[in-house]
Amino acid sequence: MRMLSTYLIGLIFGVGISISGMANPAKVLNFFDFAGTWDPSLIFVMGGALIVTFIGYRFVLKRSAPFFGGHFILPSRNDLDAQLIGGSALFGIGWGIAGFCPGGALPALGTAKPEVFIFIAALLAGIYAAKFIQTTLANRTIGATQ
Amino acid sequence: METTFTPYASLGGGVLIGLASVMLMATLGRIFGATGIVAGLLQPSSSSDWSWRALLLLGMISGPLAVMAITGEMPAVQVPISTTMLVIGGFIVGIGVTLGSGCTSGHGVCGMARLSTRSITATTTFMIFTAITVYVIRHVIGA
């Protein structure tokens, strides 16, 4: 039941991404190309997703626990740091170059287009590289304080 | 490359993305973040932690196939850039979402819906940098 439900939630997300245009780099890049071939469609994606999530979360988070047990796992940090802002700036640059974001590219794997596999491979390499840098920096900080 | 303005399909798609985010929170108590799903698959802390992410990913990948089954057409994936740029872009996205702890789904939808200061800051930052990057590539360098 729990497994089927999780699969179906992924499927709903994947269908949503597919029909919204978020899996199509040409459409994503045109959304940001105000000075050229502008396509405002993505405002509707963000708007629709945000309104539903904003209202839905209000009801869901009033409950004491998730349906399948455990507890709600929500980020609790409120501070703004250089990693958050620098990382988001880098993500923006990469998104502006490639036109794929992770949420758009993962469902796009289902189209079996070679470009999607190339992007995902590069994405994974970037994630590994960043994790390696984070671990190295963390170890160095621990070493310096000892 | 011109693309057609699709307000209804995009709104419908957005509503489904929102529904999936709400349902994941309602059932498993989790934020629907594509970055977290991929990162968690790479470095799971337990096998139960791995399985829900794998199922979610399997569902996501089935999305285009379901659309194909219903409409008879695979969703369009048009990549108007070279393979080299795709690799460079993908690598930078990977570093960025890891350091920034999220992307369009985690920060842009779930975090913004919770009115999280970090997510609002992250989303504003990446939207501005994406627009600048597209402007520079298309209108300054003229690629």
Highlighted features:
heterodimer; A: mainly alpha; 0% strand; B: 143 residues; mainly alpha; 6 helices
Describe this structure in words.
The complex is a heterodimer of chains A (146) and B (143). The mean pLDDT of chain A is 94. With 146 residues, chain A is mostly helical. The longest helix of chain A has 32 residues, at 114-145. Chain A has helices at residues 2-20, 25-31, 41-60, 82-98, 102-108, 114-145. Helix content of chain A is 70%, strand content 0%. Chain B has one domain (7-140). Classes of the chains: A mainly alpha (146), B mainly alpha (143). At the A-B interface, helix 1, helix 2, helix 3, helix 4 and helix 5 of A face helix 1, helix 2, helix 3, helix 4 and helix 5 of B.
Q: What Rg of chain A, in angstroms, do the CA atoms define? A: 19 Å
Sheet of most strands of chain B = none
From the spread of the alpha carbons, the general shape of chain A counts as: globular
Query: What kind of oligomer do you see?
Result: heterodimer
Taken as a percent bin, the fraction of beta residues of chain A is under 5%
Alpha carbon gap, first and last residue of chain A:
50 Å
The residue-averaged pLDDT of chain B reads 95
